[in-house]
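Researcher: Good morning. I'm working through a list of sequences from a screen, and I'd like to move beyond sequence-only analysis. For each chain I'm collecting a predicted structure so we can compare shapes side by side. This is the next one on the list. No need for commentary yet; just the structure.
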Amino acid sequence: MSNSRLEKDILERVDRLIEEVIELGRAGEESFQENKRRCLETVAELGDLLMVILERKGEEYLKPLLKQLIAQRIPDKSVLASFGSFPEHLEAVIEEGIELYLGSLKQGEAELQAPSSGENPEGVPAEPDLPLPEESGEEGTRRGFEASLEALKVALVQAYLGEEIIAGYPTRVGRISFYLPRLRLGFELESPPLKTGVRNSTAARRE
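Model: Good morning. Structure tokens for this chain:
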């Protein structure tokens, strides 16, 4: 799929999701679950498209990227105020939809794994796995952060085609990982302190 077609398909589904969530807020008790099901299906379709951008190795960026795309397509906040509980419904649909989508991915991957009975599919005993040399905690953390940073860069390049992306952009409070000057939009990937178990996190903010 070409980048232009992929971008078009993503934006079409983002617009559809916004409309479906608006309808969800208007739905009565009888039609609420059916409307919600359509919303969750659209989130799953967006998940498939966005994971093409993320190359199946940036699941932690899926939700922030989807939220950012939606934020760019929704009307002014004053207009949204007339739709009552739209923000709450949107947040709930994204949270549940992404959770279900990632769960389905993990289930599919588990089903594709080789049998665990010690034999391969042809019935021949499998060779034992040899232990791999372990990296130090700090080295593993550094490599993981660098891989996450590269995955975020790839996602931004694909999601914001043609936009200038500046890495390590300086601000008053320090550098942010990536900055899009025309959109005045920054993405920050926080590096966890070494020797701790704090996870990486990503945030998008406007300067």
